Amino acid sequence: MSQPQTDDPLQLVAGELNAIGQRLSYLGSVLQTHAAAQAQQQAPQPAAPQPAAEPAAGDPTAAEAADAQPKSQLPPYPKQDTAKAVPRRRLRADFEPGRVLAWGGGGITLLGVVFLLVLAVQQDWIGPVARVGGGAALAALLIAAGWWVHHKAAEQRIAGIALASTGFAALFLDAVAATALYRFLPVAVGLGAGLAIALGGLLLADRWRAQVLAVGVVLGSAICAPLITTAPTAPLVAFLLLLQVAATPVQVRRGWNGLALVAGFPAVLAALIGTIYSLGFPNDALTLSIFAASVLGVVVAAITAGARPDAERTNIGLLVASPAPAFLAGPLLLERVEATATGAGMTLLLAAIWAVGRYFPAFTEWLSGRFLTATGAMALVAAAQATASALDSSSWATALLCEALVLAIAGYSLRRGGILLGSAVYALVGFWIAVANEAPISAMLWFREGTGVPGLVAGLLITAVAVALPVAGAGIGKLGRLPGSMAAWAVALIAALYGTASAIMAACLLVSEARGAFLAGHILITLCWVIAAIAMLLRGVRIKHLRIGGMVLTAVALAKLLLFDLATLDGFARVIAFLCAGLFLLTAGVGYARLLGREARSS
């Protein structure tokens, strides 16, 4: 008979072991049967008896006698108790009746305390001092009761945590009432009391190993603190920073992701709101606390990432969110020099963390690769913010393209594909800004005033970056399929063509602003494209991508010659363009044929 269903793990394990024993007994009986059959076959057979007469058809006695002959049968498979083999599905631990009753009772008790205080105020039963003192005494009794229940029996642990959480919540409300409602305490003292309450709750949660208590205490203090300050001021941001610092050792020691989130993000949110608040009510202390929150958040994220590499997503989330207030506050609240300095400082901090994690042997195993990748990406964002703060919008394209070129060289030297990816992002943004400002496409399509030195510099930088990026990527081979991707080489080729054309046209119009300079610029653009195509073809005898790029560039140069130059140029300019392009192509054809013959003979 099956046993009643139960959720006891020991009984479940006993049921599984019983089922395994039944299966082993069945296999043993099968092996014994086969061994007996083999023994009978190997024994000497007696003289064959005279064959009996076959039973007559329809004789029931003979049929029963035939059925009575012994046959080798396998033992039946033992029936298993399905009630033991398939345990009953349990409720989620968060929705067990004990937890629901404990937390529901704690919430109702807290509401009762609030309603009691409200009724006491309305009926004027007791004075403000007695209300605050009574609330503190009731909260202390709840915490003491939680301590007693928690240590009385292990099965009452949830009830003890719920009582303690209710007591700490009541203490937070009492501190808010004493500070914001009755003005018994200054704001700084009220925040200090709230911090002391949070520290006590964190110590108790660490002792009990109760993450839910720690999260509740930190979240409760973060919610009650704005009620004390009544505005996103510097003391509020400082309080949340101290709260994050206080929670860091506990969450690192116990590995509590929830505590890391509720301790880190309130400080970031307060700093962001404080930045918007400072636009209407400027305050130097608030501005300083905003930048301190960003720096401290990055440092705490790095420490947490080193101590707890298993919580990679949480650490990366804190790292990405922490510098956001500094990025927003720098351009909005500070002067250009100060905003540039703060952006550069954040860049140096993030770059230092990245460099320490990558190149210092003592820390190479301390920080994960993904965290370091996120750190490098945030360093690039900080550098872009510092660049935008330092320069006018008219110089952004030149600065970004210069930084992209430097990053491409650094990525090739350090053999880091992530740096090349950052260079590509800088180059893409700088290219589009240059197309909108320094090197517009209209300057090459219609004759007008030239783009001057900025257009010349932007064109040269676009060409240099377009050449450096794919060459560096192919050299280090760290970008997966990117060095061998035709799309990447095509994008680089288009950018190089555009940069070359912009630089040539800007240089020609710098020499002379007449229409002849515009026509000469187009002749030189076509010839430069033809020469570049020939060089790529001659170099691409052994390199596939260069050979294909040379063919494409030849087609582009011929298309420009026939579709644009033929319609735009006139007279002697048209003759020079066509003659020079044709002679170059003929010479290149002869040289390419010789190279192919030489390669064929050498192979």
UniProtKB/TrEMBL annotation:
Keywords, ordered alphabetically: Membrane, Transmembrane, Transmembrane helix
Q: Where is the composition biased (Low complexity)?
A: 35-68
Q: List every stretch annotated Disordered.
A: 35-89
Membrane-crossing segments per the record: 100-122, 128-149, 161-181, 187-205, 212-228, 259-279, 285-304, 340-360, 367-388, 394-412, 419-436, 456-476, 488-512, 518-538, 550-569, 575-597
**Protein name as annotated:** DUF2339 domain-containing protein
Question: Lineage of the source organism?
Answer: Bacteria, Bacillati, Actinomycetota, Actinomycetes, Pseudonocardiales
